[in-house]
Design goal:
CATH topology of the largest domain in chain A: ABC transporter involved in vitamin B12 uptake, BtuC
Distance between the termini of chain A: 49 Å
InterPro entries (chain B): ABC_AA/LPS_Transport, ABC_transporter-like_ATP-bd, ABC_transporter-like_CS, BCA_ABC_TP_C, P-loop_NTPase
Shape of chain A: globular
Structural class of chain B: alpha/beta
Distance between the termini of chain B: 52 Å
Strand order of the largest sheet of chain B: 6-7-8-3-9-10
Order of helices and strands of chain A: HHHHHHEHEHHHEHHHHEHHHH
Largest interface: A-B, 31 and 40 residues
GO molecular function, one term (chain B): ATP binding
Number of domains of chain A: 2
Pfam families (chain B): ABC_tran (PF00005), BCA_ABC_TP_C (PF12399)
Order of helices and strands of chain B: HEEEHEEHEHHHHEHEHEEHHH
Strand content of chain B: 15-25%
Keywords (chain B): ATP-binding, Nucleotide-binding, Transport
Strand content of chain A: under 5%
Number of helices of chain B: 12
Structural class of chain A: mainly alpha
Oligomer: heterodimer
Protein name (chain B): ABC transporter ATP-binding protein
CATH architecture of the largest domain in chain A: Orthogonal Bundle
Number of helices of chain A: 18
Chain lengths: 400, 307
């Protein structure tokens, strides 16, 4: 019972942690590319890496914090323009080839011995060089332990029966959220219902699984399950994710966003209506890339080091998986998708670690097992529910 | 009716020869050649399209009509560009090196043979994309709804108006992908009208449309002309062509072979040749083999010279 409680608490910590928030921001960018504009960007990890490097290396060289962020954005913009001018006039498949290759170039440069003094090479760029500047900005008290929620199940009853009941309530709310996402017709009402349900679910989950972390500070532990930099980075990460979602909301509901969807459906039709398709695609590529870079910065802050190998092709595919779980071309899909993805991954890993005998699957095999299961989930999803959890069912009937 | 006679009078003095000069041309085309490898798809020496009338572009399959449309609207580039050859001019503007989007903005809007309805967008969204001068389509302004809300309301009203005219208003919230083929043709035409074009180019507007809908489409095209628009359209159905067009241009093997009013051009020997072949009236039993052989040899000679 206590072991399961510990496991689920870890799952919740990772599921709503800063790393998830970072991935969510990256996926918001990918959604602008793939979901709204139909650009098959297979190199989102490259944007992430550029954002992280640009920001972290600048901060480490005593460049002001805001300027460092702008440098990250500038690198992503230049990267997007290089890709855009070379591949955006070609058909979609070529963009996929160019982006995957370009992201690979960034990764190789990051790993290269030649730039080791700058990027730290394959050992990574350690967070102690850039974290302090970020932690100094915190208006949370430093190095204090906060439990969220401080009013929790322990104040009511610690009996097994009450806890199991509470867990079932949390599970029911989670299932309700997913079902509501699948059943409701898209629109403002759906968004409000989802956000409301999400908040209730979060509170219920935190009531049953209170999380304890430093308010601000570096509590990175070797074991990846327990890695986190305190509530400050979690807070910043999700606030940024919310702001990015708001920006995408405004963009996609504007006439500009309508053009994006039109380009996704048929470029030539949009061209015949007198719109400059190339310029709009380039703008979309840059905006999505900058979201990717911002996500890369938060990702760097949530980890012990920026390693190029962490942000290579598997990262891009993880982003696509999470985006498709949530639903491409939806507003909340990029937020719920990675949360569900990490819940799933950590639950499977925890189960393999604690409940599957080592003779069958050892602890080292826990992570690969989780990837196998999540990969299968992606396949099943694409076959049986290609629009994801939040996607509009009607859109599916006219797949292009 | 007086307008119709005025249009007929304006064309009465025009010569019935390929590339003849019109009294008030809106589109003027010179020396457009488009080759795909060794095949010359389009080779137009000179063409003028009269303003304010319906001109039909006809010709057998593979005559180069759609390629010609693509060239005019910037979706394809002529092979003769830059060699001092290709030049075309719409409403006084030189379009020789203009992109498709910029050409559409000058007021020459086209539709496609295979309709390009934006399937996963609603009919209304499709329509609203057709509007021009929407400041909200600029990225910097899109984040500030007050900057574009007024224009959006105008566009919305206009879209509803046009949808009502094309009897699609009940479908406005449906996805365009759920429309029938004929309704998509209507939608595409209505969408093209959102920007108030001066000339509309319709690529086979009647293909795949049932006869009842054809009648209403024809009515729409005629009303466009009555509103002062110039219409150029590609069509196979001769009844349609004869019914609504004032002038017919006939293409065959990439060239313009005949021009004239719809009632007389069909009897032009060049047109009959193009559609039915030069020997369509010859009885097979009376064929003179030697003559045919010499003709074939001549044609082969010609082909070798060209190749």
């Amino acid at each position: 019972m206590d072991q399961l409680q510990a496991l689920l608490t870890d799952v919740l910590r990772e599921g709503i942690g800063a790393k998830t928030a970072a991935i969510a921001i990256v996926i918001i960018g990918l959604n602008v590319h793939f979901g709204y504009t139909g650009l098959l960007n297979m190199g989102q990890a490259g944007f992430m890496l550029l954002g992280g490097y640009g920001f972290a290396i600048s901060v480490a060289h005593d460049i002001p914090f805001v300027v460092a962020i702008l440098i990250g954005f500038a690198l992503a913009t230049v990267f997007a323009m290089i890709i855009g001018f070379s591949a955006l006039t070609l058909r979609g498949d070529y963009l996929a080839i160019v982006t995957i290759a370009a992201a690979e170039v960034i990764k190789i440069l990051g790993n290269s011995e030649r730039f080791k003094s700058l990027t730290g090479g394959s050992l990574g760029f350690p967070s102690k060089k850039y974290d302090p500047a970020f932690l100094n900005l915190s208006f949370f008290p430093h190095y204090k332990t906060w439990q969220i929620l401080s009013f929790n199940y322990a104040d009511v009853s610690t009996s097994a029966g009450f806890r199991i009941f509470g867990w079932l309530v949390v599970l029911a709310l989670a299932v309700g959220l997913v079902l509501a996402g699948m059943k409701l017709a898209s629109g403002t009402r759906k968004i409000l219902v989802m956000v409301g349900l999400g908040v209730v679910l979060l509170l219920a989950a935190l009531f049953m699984f209170p999380l304890t972390e430093l308010s601000t500070g570096d509590s990175k532990v070797g074991d990846h399950v327990a890695s986190s930099t305190g509530w400050w980075v979690v807070f910043v990460g999700w606030v940024l994710a919310a702001i990015c979602t708001g920006i995408v909301y405004l963009l996609t509901r504007s006439p500009w966003g309508r053009m994006l969807k039109g380009i996704r459906e048929d470029e030539d039709a949009i061209r015949s209506l007198g719109k400059n398709v190339f310029a709009v695609k380039l703008q979309a590529l840059i905006i999505g890339g900058c979201f990717g870079a911002l996500g890369g910065m938060v990702y760097a802050l949530s980890l012990g080091a920026i390693k190029a190998d962490d942000q290579a092709r598997p990262m891009t595919f993880l982003c696509y998986t999470a985006l498709l779980i949530g639903g491409a071309a939806t507003l909340l899909g990029p937020i719920i998708g990675p949360v569900l993805y990490f819940f799933g991954q950590w639950t499977i890993e925890g189960i393999v670690r604690f409940y599957v005998p080592d003779s069958f699957l050892s602890d080292q095999q826990a992570e690969p097992t989780a990837y196998v299961v999540m990969g299968t989930v992606l396949m099943l999803l694409v076959i049986f529910r290609p629009q994801g959890i939040f996607g509009d069912k009607r859109e599916l009937r006219f797949h292009v | 009716m007086s307008e119709a006679t005025a249009r007929a009078d304006a064309l009465a003095s025009v010569e019935r020869t390929p590339g003849s000069a019109k009294p008030d041309p809106i589109l003027r085309v010179d020396k457009i050649v488009r080759q795909f490898g060794g095949i010359t798809a389009v080779d137009v020496e000179h063409l003028e399209v009269q303003r304010g009338i319906i001109t039909a572009l006809i010709g057998p399959n593979g005559a180069g009509k759609t390629t010609f449309f693509n060239l005019m609207t910037g979706f394809d580039q002529p092979t003769s560009a830059g060699k001092g050859g290709a030049a075309w001019n719409f409403n006084g503007k030189q379009l020789t090196r203009t992109g498709a989007a910029a050409i559409a903005r000058t007021g020459m809007v086209r539709t496609f043979q295979l309709t390009k309805a934006l399937s996963r967008m609603t009919v209304l969204e499709n329509m609203m994309l057709g509007a021009s001068n929407q400041p909200g389509e600029r990225l910097a302004l899109s984040l500030f709804p007050p900057a574009w809300r007024k224009r959006e309301a105008e566009v919305h009203a206009k879209a509803l108006d046009l949808l009502a005219r094309f009897k699609l208003d009940t479908k406005k919230d449906d996805y365009a992908g759920s429309l029938s083929g004929g309704q998509r043709k209507l939608l595409e035409m209505a969408r093209a009208l959102m920007s108030d074009p001066t000339m509309i180019m319709l690529d086979e507007p009647m293909a795949g449309v049932n006869p009842a809908l054809t009648q209403s489409l024809l009515g729409h095209i005629q009303s466009l002309r009555d509103d002062g628009m110039t219409v150029l359209f590609v069509e196979h159905d001769m009844h349609v062509v004869r019914h609504i067009s004032e002038w017919v241009v006939v293409m065959a093997e990439g060239r313009i072979v005949a021009e004239g009013p719809s009632d007389t051009v069909m009897s032009d020997p060049a047109v009959i040749d193009a559609y039915l072949g030069a020997h369509h009236e010859t009885d097979l039993a009376e064929l003179d083999y030697d003559e045919i052989e010499s003709e074939v040899a001549e044609e082969e000679q010609e082909r070798e010279e060209l190749g």
